[in-house]
Every structure is written in structure tokens, then in C-alpha cells.
Input
Amino acid sequence: MITIKEMAEMLYPKKQTCYIGDRLHLVVVEDGEERTIMGHKTTFFDIQSTKAKQFGFCMDMGNGEKFTCCGDEPYNECEKKYAENSKWLLHEAFCLFDQADRFHPYEKHHSTAKDASELAEQLGVQNLILYHTEDKNIAEVIVAKQRNGPLGTVKLAWLGQYTRFASLQQGGAAQ
Output
């Protein structure tokens, strides 16, 4: 059986795979499993995807604060105990609500920005970060709710070879 690392090494140049096992760790997790990441207890949870097995995570940031990611599908009630009262909620949004007739997010198992915003309000989330990208090199991050700071949209370059985002204004131009 071929591993994910071996498959990646067959598909991508060495400069894009050299960090697998060193800085980038591919680890199988189970529902409810806890791991320590960067000194923070992180709990993984099955989001009950209808497409494929997917996990969200909830990171304990200390002082009773949580950073939660609900995965890449609409909210499922099983995520409530993780997302409720999070300081930060990272949630997907395929499009704006008034664009739903054009983009059909629900048929693709996705949410709208309105859905995610209403959910954040219901769950008592302090800061909401919306994400979704169909462009392979540029992500648009929408800060839709924040208690102490500006709201707005930021376009970031996806640097796949480093598995990170960079500012488009600071030399991180999409390749």
C-alpha cells in the first residue's frame, strides 16, 4: 500500500514535499482524540460529513478561550459543544446569501456568509473568520465579526510548498 507521503513525492517536486515528516506531519486522528499542538490542547471531532470523513478541531488557547474550526461543510449540531462560546470560529462560506441562486452552495454541501454569521451569533462566538477558495493560489478571508477591530476582506496568497498563507502585498504573489 502506498502512503500519502509517497504519493505526494510522486506528484510534487521535492521542494514541495521535503517538509513532510519534518515540519508538516500527517497524522490520523479519531473523533474526540486530543493532541497537544504548539503547547495547546487540541480536540478533533468528526463533523458527520455526508461527502467524506472530515474532522474539525477545537484548540484550547488558555484563559477559557477557544479557537474552533468546523471543517468544510455546513454546521452540524454535533459540533455545538466545541464551537459554542469560542473566541475564534473558522467557518467556511461558499458565497454571500444573495448569491446562493447563482452558486448553489447547499447543493455542494456548503454555507453562505449569512449562515455562518447567524450561527456565530447563536453560539456566542466573539470573532468569526470566513474562508473558502476555488482559486488554487488565492484565498479570500472575510473577517465578518470581531469585537475589537476592523471588519473586512483580505486576499492572501496560498503558498502550497510551505502549507501557509502570505500577504499579496508583501511579495506573496500567487504563482
Residues 171-175 have pLDDT under 50 and may be disordered. The CA atoms of residues 63 and 87 lie 11 Å apart.
